[in-house]
Design brief:
DUF309 domain-containing protein, 160 residues, mainly alpha, two-stranded parallel ribbon, Four Helix Bundle (Hemerythrin (Met), subunit A)
Length: 160
C-alpha cells in the first residue's frame, strides 16, 4: 500500500489500483492523463557507467579489498547486467528482480559473475562480467563506445 498526493501521479511506472480517494472523479482524470512508462536506460547510459564501475571494482581488488570488489560485482549485476538482460527479453529494465524467470544460458553466464571470497575468483568474475556486458551491448550499441575498453580494464585485471 502506498499513500500519494494527487500531484505525484503525473508520471508513473505502472498504473496503480486506487483503494480509496476523497475525490475519485478528479483522481481518475489525473490517472488517465498520466504518463505511465518504466524509465528504461538508453545504451549510452550503460556505456558511460559500465567501464567506470568495472574499473572501480577492479581497483578495489588490486588493493586487496575483496569484500568491496564482491559488492561492486553485485552492484554491476543489478545496475547493468540485469537491466540489459531484461532489455534483451523485451521486458522493463528492473535490475535483477525476477531475473531467474528469464532462464536459459544467460542465467549460467550471470551466475559466473558471482565470485567466492578469493582474489582469483573475483578476477575471473570481473572478466566474465566484461564479456557479458559486451555481448549484451551488441543488442543496442551505444552511439559512442569507449574506445580504450575493454582492453584497458582486462590489462589492469591481469596485473592485479
Amino acid at each position: 500500500m502506498k499513500f500519494v498526493k494527487s500531484s505525484d501521479l503525473t508520471r508513473l511506472v505502472e498504473r496503480p489500483a486506487v483503494l480509496f480517494a476523497r475525490d475519485s472523479g478528479q483522481l481518475e482524470s489525473i490517472l488517465e492523463a498520466a504518463a505511465i512508462e518504466w524509465p528504461n536506460a538508453p545504451p549510452e547510459w550503460f556505456e558511460q557507467r559500465a567501464w567506470i564501475w568495472l574499473h572501480y571494482g577492479a581497483a578495489k581488488l588490486a588493493r586487496g579489498e575483496v569484500f568491496e570488489a564482491l559488492g561492486m560485482l553485485a552492484f554491476f549485476r543489478d545496475q547493468v547486467l540485469g537491466p540489459m538482460l531484461h532489455r534483451r527479453a523485451g521486458r522493463p529494465q528492473r535490475g535483477v528482480r525476477r531475473i531467474e524467470m528469464l532462464g536459459g544460458s544467460a542465467m549460467g553466464r550471470l551466475a559466473g559473475t558471482i565470485a567466492t571470497f578469493d582474489a582469483e575468483s573475483v578476477r575471473a568474475a570481473f572478466l566474465k562480467a566484461i564479456d557479458m556486458y559486451l555481448d549484451l551491448r551488441a543488442d543496442e550499441p551505444p552511439p559512442q563506445p569507449v574506445a580504450t575498453m575493454p582492453a584497458a580494464i582486462r590489462n589492469y585485471l591481469a596485473k592485479t
